[in-house]
Design a protein that fits this description.
By secondary structure, the protein is of the alpha+beta class. Strands 1, 2, 3, 4, 5, 6, 7, 8 and 9 form a nine-stranded antiparallel β-sheet that branches. A hairpin with a 3-residue loop joins strand 2 and strand 3. The longest helix has 28 residues.
């Protein structure tokens, strides 16, 4: 009994000495605690402030893209366009330089390609830095000589929508898109939808999900709108660890750890893979070999309250589901920003999320700016699969503007 009491008093005395020592340390060094706790938030705030100042100095232009009436190889040509755009925007080296990052606030250059249907009238738009506008036009003209670019008179088709929405007149639903797996896994690309034939100059059509989307947009009422935004930022290995993660995943998929019994002794790792696993590895290798973009995809459905139909969002959801594959990757709504709340202060939280969603769309910012969450990597083939010139005139051609006649210079021998 005495031994137990002595042991208890010994432990209590030790705790008492430890508390006294800790109190003296705090009284002497308490002033170190605030800088340690505030270092990270102050650092991020300074960087955000500098980037906001740099962004305010940039000048952007909004152009409407009028597709040609006919395109022989729209997917392959569009991939070449995005490869050229990546090269144009490849002035991204050196942003880790202290002066450029912390004193100038420079950010990676980006552009936004958008599909907007104002009522039953779908349109293609591109918003980009004014300095790169001419170079981007040349990239399109090289693959689509008949494409046309028109300046948007109002400066931006979104200006008609008040920044205070949702309000008494307008309501909307929005969501960001994110991959279900690591972005190293590619989505289903156009090679799964089209089979080119060597003897034909045209890409043989299977199903183009873009045509289905445009036909669905034609069914909107005059006071309904659907906006799709693809924010693309060209990145290299200096700006993203995408290829490092890709090589690590390939090593994990190919070099299995489990032992396989074989009468022939050593079996190469490649021989242990099933045909299905080889296909997955090949798709990943193909993506790693492409130029890549840091991507954010966003969709808004906007309508007057008296005709608002939440089921309209299925038009965009079905479009992205067409590029999903359980074996590769799946594009789905990102839960962190979707404008549907189920628990606790539902109405207020839904209102704030919708306001933030609209604001980020209008500012063309990432989902959780200034944080980097919500973006993912897509290769040029994947981007071209999602965004390309419509292949043929279907029902969508009745409202989608097309270049009806080819423009060319007059013949040299034309009499005057």
């Amino acid at each position: 009994m005495n031994f137990g009491l002595e042991n208890f008093f010994f432990i209590w005395r030790g705790i008492d000495w430890a508390l006294i020592f800790l109190g003296k340390m705090v009284s002497l060094w308490w002033w170190l605690l605030p800088p340690i706790l505030l270092y990270s938030p102050v650092k991020k705030s300074i960087l955000w402030w500098q980037r906001e100042k740099w962004e305010a100095r940039q000048k952007y232009v909004m152009l409407e893209i009028v597709p040609p009436k006919e395109s022989l190889k729209p997917l392959l040509a569009m991939e070449q366009v995005f490869s050229s755009i990546w090269s144009i925007y490849s002035s991204i080296e050196g942003l880790k330089n202290f002066r450029k990052k912390w004193m100038e606030g420079r950010r990676l250059s980006h552009l936004c390609i958008e599909i907007a249907s104002i009522g039953p009238h779908p349109r293609f738009f591109i918003r980009l830095n004014k300095k790169q506008a001419d170079a981007v036009r040349v990239a399109f003209y090289a693959q689509y000589p008949d494409v046309e670019f028109h300046d948007v008179p109002e400066g931006d088709y979104t200006q008609a929508m008040a920044w205070t929405a949702p309000d008494r007149q307008w309501n909307f639903y929005g969501f960001d898109i994110a991959p279900a797996k690591s972005d190293v896994y590619p989505i289903k690309t156009y090679s799964h939808f089209f089979e080119p034939r060597p003897e034909s100059t045209k890409e043989e059509k299977r199903i183009d999900p873009l045509n289905n989307l445009l036909e669905g947009l034609n069914e909107l009422k005059p006071d309904e709108q659907i906006w799709l935004q693809f924010r693309l930022t060209p990145v290299s290995d200096k700006d993203s660890d995408f290829r490092r993660r890709g090589r690590a995943l390939l090593a994990k998929l190919v070099h299995r750890k489990e032992k396989v019994k074989s009468g022939d002794g050593f079996v190469p790792p490649e021989m242990k893979m099933t045909p299905h696993e080889k296909d997955v590895v090949k798709e990943i290798e193909d993506k790693l070999s492409k130029y890549v973009f840091q991507t954010n995809i966003r969709c808004l459905y906007i309508a007057r309250r008296e005709i608002f139909d939440g089921a309209r969002r299925a038009l965009a959801e079905q479009y992205f589901s067409a590029f999903s594959s359980p074996d590769l990757n799946i594009l789905r709504r990102w839960s962190k920003t979707k404008t549907k709340i189920r628990y606790f202060f539902i109405k207020r939280r839904e209102y704030l999320r919708r306001r933030n969603m609209l604001r980020r769309y209008l500012l063309r910012e990432t989902p959780l700016y200034p944080k980097h969450e919500g973006t993912f990597i897509l290769g040029t083939e994947e981007v071209a699969t999602l965004i390309h010139m419509p292949i043929e005139l279907t029902k969508s051609g009745s409202s989608l503007p097309r270049v009806e006649t080819k423009k060319s210079e007059a013949p040299i021998d034309l009499p005057i």
